């Protein structure tokens, strides 16, 4: 996604979040001590081979690493959407593909008013910075707002990105001007040409 002069991810790199398994185990133990037991949690996913594999993996690492009991709830896509929209889950696997080439296509997913915010995440600071991103005309101001949103997400962790799709293509060295893109016609041969 574009930033001011380069890609947003290069201009505003996300700081690597440290993994602290000891702290996670301590927090789980505190919950168990306060409640007398650990609550069972439900992981909602679409009934698909990929969804099943990811859910099984997460169930295993959270069970082995933290002692959490995770029940996997695999549903047809229609049932998944109904349960997700009504909040019938503790955790849910989800994906999003951009519909236009701007950081706001992802950023507005966590707006408190967005129907696709199925976890019902709400943070007034997030909503305020999102409005700046949505209405500011200056590119630098917009990307600074996007960086603030990124920092809030890193601090609050309303979601955990797990994968980013990508593709690799082979192209003859004499073929130039072919544009590959996530949005629109792909490949776009409008400016394609063969050079000797």
From TrEMBL:
Principal location class: other
Keyword annotations of the record: Signal, Transport
Record-linked Pfam families: SBP_bac_5
Record flagged with keyword Cell division: no
GO cellular component, one term: cell envelope
Gene3D superfamilies: Dipeptide-binding Protein, Domain 3, Periplasmic binding protein-like II
Any one of the GO BP annotations: peptide transport
Compartments, as annotated in UniProt: Cell envelope
MF terms in GO: peptide transmembrane transporter activity
Residues in Solute-binding protein family domain copies: 17-116
Keyword field contains Cytoplasm: no
Family statement drawn from the similarity comment of this UniProt entry: Belongs to the bacterial solute-binding protein 5 family.
PANTHER family in alphabetical order: PERIPLASMIC BINDING COMPONENT OF ABC TRANSPORTER, PERIPLASMIC OLIGOPEPTIDE-BINDING PROTEIN-RELATED
Protein name, UniProt field: Solute-binding protein family 5 domain-containing protein
Organism: SAR86 cluster bacterium
């Amino acid at each position: 996604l574009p930033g001011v002069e380069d890609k947003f991810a290069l201009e505003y790199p996300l700081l690597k979040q440290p993994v602290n398994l000891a702290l996670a185990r301590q927090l789980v133990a505190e919950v168990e001590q306060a409640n007398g037991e650990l609550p069972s949690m439900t992981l909602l996913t679409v009934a698909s081979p990929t969804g099943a594999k990811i859910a099984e993996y997460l169930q295993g690492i959270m069970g082995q690493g933290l002692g959490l009991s995770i029940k996997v709830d695999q549903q047809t896509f229609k049932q998944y959407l109904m349960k997700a929209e009504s909040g019938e889950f503790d955790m849910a696997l989800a994906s999003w593909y951009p519909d236009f080439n701007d950081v706001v296509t992802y950023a507005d997913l966590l707006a408190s008013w967005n129907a696709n915010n199925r976890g019902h995440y709400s943070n007034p600071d997030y909503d305020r910075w999102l409005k700046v991103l949505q209405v500011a005309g200056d590119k630098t101001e917009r990307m600074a707002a996007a960086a603030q949103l990124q920092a809030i997400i890193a601090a609050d962790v309303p979601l955990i990105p797990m994968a980013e799709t990508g593709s690799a293509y082979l192209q003859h060295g004499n073929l130039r001007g072919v544009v590959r893109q996530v949005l629109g016609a792909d490949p776009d041969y409008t400016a394609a040409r063969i050079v000797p």
